[in-house]
Amino acid sequence: MLVETTQRVSEAEYLDLERPAVDRHEFRNGVVVEVPSSNHDHSMIEGSIGISLGEQLDRSDFELYMVAMRVKVPMVNLITYPDIVVCRNPQFLDAEQDVLLNPTFVCEVMSPRTIAYDLGAKAASYRQHDSLLEFLLVEQERPVAEHYVRRDEATWQVTRVAGLSAEIELHSIPCRITLADAFSKVERPLK
Predict the structure, then answer these.
(1) What are the backbone dihedrals phi and psi of residue 61, each rounded to the nearest 5 degrees, phi first?
(2) d(C-alpha 9, C-alpha 173), whole Å
(3) What region, left, alpha or beta, does residue 77 occupy, with left being phi > 0 and alpha being psi -120 to 50 degrees?
(4) Residue 105 forms beta bridges with which residues?
(5) What is the 8-class DSSP label of residue 172?
(6) Domains of the chain and CATH, by start
(7) Residues 120, 112: contact at Cβ < 8 Å?
């Protein structure tokens, strides 16, 4: 079992401990940080978006990964677990094929515990990934999303959408996401 610690470990030490672990942990520049577990609403939103993207990408040359695929962001020495990752011609860190190096699109469902990190340090890290062209951060508590699209090497366009009628046209993959579909399995009243 891998335990969160402030003591620095190498990337190799992290992977040796993380690969057999039951709980998930991020590697943040040598520091291991536990990833909070999902609840019902988080899982339903993630699943709805994943199913929609999977259907739209069917018969394309894109690959879709959900939940368990690690992504390495080498510029900031981060290994993280996005909720959804899409790429073409995947490149992996090693023969284990469990750390993706070249994501095209990433989607995160932000829980109340992770929203500050996701909108702050994690979004900043994603913007530094060379292969990442687009990412989407969806709030779990209400139908709100931030959509980031790379315009050039140093510029990202950020669009905030809100409400169940909101629709997000993705630019890096041939897909569209509606917040009505994303929240279709959430049974509690939305804020």
Answers:
(1) -95, 15
(2) 36
(3) left
(4) 86, 134
(5) S
(6) 1-35 (no CATH), 38-182 (3.90.1570.10)
(7) no
**How far is Cα 59 from Cα 63, in angstroms, rounded to an integer?**
10
CA 104 to chain centre: 11
* Closest C-alpha among 108, 114, 100 to residue 71: 100
- Separation of alpha carbons 129 and 75, rounded Å: 7
Contacts of 168 (CB under 8 A, 6+ apart): 136, 145, 147, 161, 176, 177, 178, 179
What pLDDT digit, counting tens, does each position of 137-180 carry? 999 999 999 999 999 988 999 999 999 999 999 999 999 999 99
In the chain, where does DSSP find H-type helix? Answer: 11-18, 40-57, 115-117, 123-126, 179-182
Q: What is the CA radius of gyration of the chain?
A: 16
- C-alpha to C-alpha distance for 166 and 94, rounded to whole angstroms: 39
Give the number of other CB atoms < 10 A from CB of residue 150.
Answer: 20
C-beta separation of 168 from 143 below 8 A? no
pTM of the complete model? 0.93
Place of tokens 């050039």: 152
Report residue 99 as tokens.
Answer: 């750390």
Ranges in the chain, pLDDT < 70:
1-6, 189-191
